[in-house]
């Protein structure tokens, strides 16, 4: 059958008013990068997150590379990172010399399991990466307890969780470093690519502008504006060279208009996710969402569920039926990182993450975007219900037939 | 006095028709990154440059990092790079393990001097970076002779020279690797940030998509679209991790419309530069441009001149007069890289580049952008003439006075 609903897609549209601001920047902004729109976007980010050391970058991956660089990782330093996440949560640390230790997830939250992490902490552990996956703010308190009096950094990957909260504090601002993504599919996108970084330590934060922009930081006062030339290109980190991870003015303009709407957009997502989950409440033994946690603001970047392998239908059959019978494209995420060709070949095949394997083998991710009409959302819900109903009907028919015989 | 003409500024504007295309992409493109506009821009780049292995990247610096990674540099490998260039021409190679050897420039071309390079080639030399600075296509033949039968890579940095030509072939496509910049101030800008890379070796070129995008390359054929998941994240280089150097759809849309106009825009630059130089012809003993070379298309990204230190006025006095008397902001470029805090602290202070020092100490870079009106250009020319005329008048007055006395 013809596909009706794609899984992937842009997360939000831009209004005519937003586009007017963006076009204004395209037409008149001078310079077109590293100017007043960057300052504006960063001030809005700082205000929104309630932290001063927040900077715009070219992507969350760039932010994670910057974090890895600022973490001053030494050879054989270990970094614990969940195996159930996108590859960018992990590889920047290995790229900067760390040994990756795969952390398992908690099956309810689908985020890093503190109990498993505790077992994996060693004398060589230098950092723990907590990924607020799917928009769900993982609890940091257990991790803070684990690293107390230890020289271990707590790093929050909020690529999918801009606007998520934990006890009324923004995810990504509670550890030593945080990062955000404004990529095409994220809850807020700066025209397809973009990111941000939070740095707790103010002396490290001072190094960010240079580290992000080929070593460039501001000039001090100069008697003559043209000399000395280029004395603003400095060594920010003794042990690292700089990067080119800058966000353009046009991207910053888009970010500045969209950040005003992020709470509203996230509220709409939350409303829709709750509606979806509630409508499928009767199937809660079969489809297990991570919905009920107190003191949390889960911004539902994605809407995945665990398909109970002892339930009515197995995961692959459900995906097949939804796709081939109803034209709804669902996917499976995330392939455990230790199974990637990339990580295996680089020596990170070793793992002990039963929950990660179990969850990946039995999970389904439904299409879930703001561009989707309520009609489509209802169609997905109705299709799921129909699949389960048909199986139940067949079963009771078989029982009836048996009884009549 | 109030400043009238800034040195820096955006290199070109976007027409209403260009903006219509860009807005169409902002409104309807799905995905907003790595989609059909990337394919379109890359096909236009390939067509324009006459080479198939051309890819869009997030910046020229990113391209240079990718080149450094693909070059498989070993510890103690030496890379010869001109000291008279922007820092990004050099640091990606040091970041990837190379020892930087500072090459001197030829005073006429202001690009890497083949004679000096010959002296600096050693058994450890792994690459030579020729920077087509200011838009001027450096001759590659002498370098090709130097590296003949040697395992030395020839790398062209065309950050300032998109559209430059040498004997009717595009700069950047004649060596083993080339890179281009579409940064805010470049002759063509993809909305403030952007770049491209050319890779001669087709087997290395195959690694580029993954290396540029977190290891992602295309899926092969899969029976079921959702599995196996993420098998497209591969190890492209045994000795390197991937990067996130992607250009968004909106940036690619801008690139695709502007590339149609680049020859016209460059022709206008060439016309203006030649006009400027011709009008100052009488001062050619004082202001020495690099204008007269056969078989070259110099796209004049910048318009610098050597101020003869034995001439009418010294460089700093000229800048001061232009700035404080006429409101014209000129600058000096490029501070020799071995003098940067960044390179000195990383162990690359050693140098033997008398021409680089001499040129930097005596050069001036005039404001030169397409947004500048012909009226402004004429004002700069007239102001320069006036400065020289006044000095000459004073001199002849002194002589007259002496004679009368």
What report would you give on this structure?
2 copies of one chain form a homodimer. Chain A has 405 residues and is of the alpha/beta class. Chain A has 2 domains: 16-260, 3-Layer(aba) Sandwich (Aspartate Aminotransferase, domain 2); 263-394, Aspartate Aminotransferase, domain 1 (Alpha-Beta Complex), CATH 3.90.1150.10. Chain A has helices at 16-28, 36-49, 60-70, 91-95, 114-120, 141-147, 202-205, 208-212, 249-258, 262-279, 315-325, 341-345, 354-362, 374-404; strands at 54-57, 78-82, 99-103, 125-131, 153-158, 165-166, 169-170, 177-181, 195-199, 287-288, 296-297, 303-307, 363-366. A 7-stranded mixed sheet of chain A has the order 1-9-8-5-4-2-3, sandwiched between helices. In chain A, α4 (91-95) links the parallel β2 (78-82) and β3. In chain A, α1 runs antiparallel to α9 and α2 (36-49) runs parallel beside α9 (249-258). The first copy, chain A, is globular and about 100 Å long. The two termini of chain A are 38 Å apart. At the A-B interface, α1, α3, α4, α9 and α11 of A face α1, α3, α4, α9 and α11 of B.
């Amino acid at each position: 059958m013809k596909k009706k609903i794609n899984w992937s897609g842009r997360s939000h549209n831009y209004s005519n008013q937003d586009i007017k601001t963006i076009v204004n920047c395209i037409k008149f902004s001078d310079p077109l990068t590293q100017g007043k729109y960057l300052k504006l976007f960063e001030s809005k980010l700082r205000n929104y997150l309630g932290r001063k050391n927040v900077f715009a970058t070219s992507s969350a991956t760039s932010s994670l590379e910057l974090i890895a660089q600022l973490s001053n990782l030494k050879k054989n330093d270990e970094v614990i990172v969940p195996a159930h996440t996108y590859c960018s949560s992990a590889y920047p640390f290995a790229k900067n010399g760390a040994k990756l230790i795969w952390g398992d997830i908690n099956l309810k939250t689908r985020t890093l399991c503190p109990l498993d992490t505790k077992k994996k902490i060693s004398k060589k552990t230098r950092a723990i990466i907590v990924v607020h996956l799917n928009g769900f703010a993982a609890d940091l308190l257990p991790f803070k307890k684990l690293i107390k009096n230890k020289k271990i950094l707590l790093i929050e990957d909020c690529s999918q969780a801009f606007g998520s909260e934990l006890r009324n504090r923004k995810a990504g601002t509670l550890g030593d470093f945080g990062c955000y993504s404004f990529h095409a599919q994220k809850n807020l996108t700066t025209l397809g690519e973009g990111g941000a970084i939070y740095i707790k330590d103010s002396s490290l934060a001072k190094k960010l502008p240079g580290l992000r922009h080929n070593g460039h930081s501001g000039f001090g006062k100069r008697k003559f504006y043209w000399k000395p030339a280029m004395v603003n290109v400095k060594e920010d980190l003794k042990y690292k060279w700089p990067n080119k991870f800058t966000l353009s003015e046009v991207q910053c303009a888009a970010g500045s208009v969209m950040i005003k709407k992020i709470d509203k957009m996230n509220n709409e997502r939350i409303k829709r996710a709750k509606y979806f989950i509630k409508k499928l409440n009767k199937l809660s033994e079969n489809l297990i969402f991570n919905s009920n946690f107190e003191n949390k603001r889960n911004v539902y970047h994605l809407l995945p569920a665990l398909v109970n392998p002892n339930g009515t239908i197995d995961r692959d059959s459900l995906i097949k039926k939804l796709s081939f019978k109803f034209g709804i494209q669902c996917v499976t995420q995330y392939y455990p990182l230790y199974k990637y060709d990339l990580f295996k070949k680089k020596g990170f095949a070793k793992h002990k993450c039963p929950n990660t394997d179990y969850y990946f083998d039995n999970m389904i991710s439904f299409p879930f975007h703001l561009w989707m009409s309520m009609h489509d959302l209802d169609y997905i819900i109705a299709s799921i219900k129909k699949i389960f109903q048909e199986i139940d009907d067949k079963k009771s028919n078989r029982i009836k037939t048996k009884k009549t015989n």
